[in-house]
């Protein structure tokens, strides 16, 4: 069975303790609606490269 990388990543996020990805995925409303919706309200987000925000 071959896994689709997109759906594998979405599944993995729900079970991960730490997720590292570009801040664009969290701050761009169009992308965040799809990619970041699995993050909970208790998630901690650390921005590297925050000077670019």
From TrEMBL:
Organism of derivation: Timema cristinae
PANTHER family in alphabetical order: DNA REPAIR DEAD HELICASE RAD3/XP-D SUBFAMILY MEMBER, GENERAL TRANSCRIPTION AND DNA REPAIR FACTOR IIH HELICASE SUBUNIT XPD
Keywords: ATP-binding, Hydrolase, Nucleotide-binding
InterPro entries: DinG/Rad3-like, DNA/RNA_helicase_DEAH_CS, Helic_SF1/SF2_ATP-bd_DinG/Rad3, P-loop_NTPase, RAD3-like_helicase_DEAD
Gene Ontology molecular function, alphabetical: ATP binding; damaged DNA binding; DNA helicase activity; hydrolase activity
Domain Helicase ATP-binding: 1-53
Keyword DNA damage set for record: no
Taxonomic superkingdom: Eukaryota
A single GO cellular-component term on record: nucleus
Protein name per Swiss-Prot or TrEMBL: Helicase ATP-binding domain-containing protein
GO biological process: positive regulation of mitotic recombination; transcription by RNA polymerase II
Gene3D superfamilies per UniProt: P-loop containing nucleotide triphosphate hydrolases (3.40.50.300)
């Amino acid at each position: 069975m071959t896994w689709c990388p997109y759906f594998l990543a979405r599944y993995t996020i729900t079970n991960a303790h730490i997720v590292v990805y570009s801040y664009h995925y969290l701050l761009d409303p169009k992308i965040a609606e799809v990619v970041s919706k699995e993050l909970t309200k208790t998630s901690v987000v650390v921005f590297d490269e925050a000077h670019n925000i």
